Amino acid sequence: MIRRMSFALGLLLACVLASCATAPSVLPAATIAQATATLQEAIDEIAEAEATPKPAAFPLSKPGPYYGGKRTFTFEDASRDNHKVRVTVWYPALLPQGSSGSKLQAGSDRDPDRSGAPYPLILSSTKVARLLAPYLVSHGFAWASVDGIDSYYQINEQVIDQPLDILFSLDQVAAHPPQGLEGVIDAERAGAIGYSFDGYNALALGGARIDPAYYLAQCPNPDDTTQAILSGLSAFGCAPADDWDAFAAHAGEAITTSEDGLWQPMTDARIRAVMPLAGEGWWLFGERGLAAVDRPALILVATQDELYAENALIYERLGTADKALISFVGRGHMMILEYEMVARMAHFAVAFFGYHLQGRGDLAYYFSEEFVAQHDDLAWGVYGGE
Known about the structure:
Blueprint: H1 2-21, H2 29-51, E1 67-77, E2 83-93, E3 107-108, E4 119-125, H3 126-138, E5 142-146, H4 158-175, E6 185-195, H5 197-205, H6 212-217, H7 224-227, H8 244-251, H9 253-256, E7 271-277, H10 282-290, E8 297-302, H11 308-317, E9 323-328, H12 339-357, H13 369-372, E10 378-380
Parallel strand pairs: 1-3, 4-5, 4-6, 6-7, 7-8, 8-9
Antiparallel strand pairs: 1-2, 2-5, 9-10
Helix pairs in contact: 1-2, 3-12, 4-5, 10-11
């Protein structure tokens, strides 16, 4: 477009110069008309381009106004044989005088920035927090992450222990704010997020309930629905079914006792919104268990992820009416290691939790269908392409 305008301007200039150098001669009218027409076409193209909406950037992937700090604490859960839970707390912090630093690098033991306190709380494993917490903290969130919890190769007691550890971290920072962080954390406005194994935790913290009857019916012969979402990446399988009584005993009667056959949810009313990212859990929850999810949920997953079919199935069965699925077209499960994709996930997390936990209505657009439609490599809802 710019080349065309330059050509047209050059042609007109050449015409003018030629007329000055050879005053008696007369330029052909066709030459002047051609240059004028070319110039007008270029002007029209620029006007059309300016009027055409451009793909939106991801503005919330850029750091917000706050620097970050972090501190680590160890608590003991008396209800689980003094089980130790090590928690890293991330929070908006003051940059030490005379120092410089990135807003995406949290400094240890910095003094909190109380200018916007108290800050809504995000919950996850520390493995996920290392990637996403600095972004959200810079936008005015606190974060409590549990150290040491990680992925597992097959389903085991971790599907019970990890959500309970995260819930325990919520209880501790709420009832016993870490020294020096009193008044910084708003635990009454909390959200949960997680990727892959931690995506299961986010679903559980969103109210999904284990359905023993459905799970045990899949072992060793899964039904067509479960069979269709099986993948080599999934950690879910039939290991607990080999000794279900021991598995249930580990969960405890407070979780396993109910009147409807489903286990009790491992959640808390303070958790107001959840973001399961490329997670799993269909085997344990089934349709009835997922229908129990009763708060806003946003799922992000890549279309080339082996877990995509399971995420689509989970999304369709979530009980909450306030739900959305955003597909990263052409990406795979390990997009979590790509800087640009992590920044995009952070953008959606800031928008989603900012809307639901900070009460910022202006952020709804940034995780909306309208916003997603402006990006060729994103899709709203279950992706129907190849």
